[in-house]
Amino acid sequence: MARYLLRLCIQMAGAIGVFFVVMSLFQWTAPEAVPLKQAVRACFTTDTDVMPVIEWLNQSGKNDDNTFMIDEV
Length: 73
Known about the structure:
Helix content is 70%, strand content 0%. The chain contains three helices and no strands. It has helices spanning 2-27, 33-47, 51-60. The radius of gyration is 19 Å and the shape is flat. The model has no long low-confidence stretch (mean pLDDT 80).
């Protein structure tokens, strides 16, 4: 039990650390930060496209009547 709690705390600390690094990057106003900001924005915008996942879930559930189907968005 303690091992899982320690793992949870480490994961939370890592997520909070990444959040603060990204936030401090976007607060940085130096011209050297522009390529880094663009790279971070590109990573977040390419990862937010969920339509392929929704289409895959719809295709995988057509043969099974017990599978939850996601309606088209």
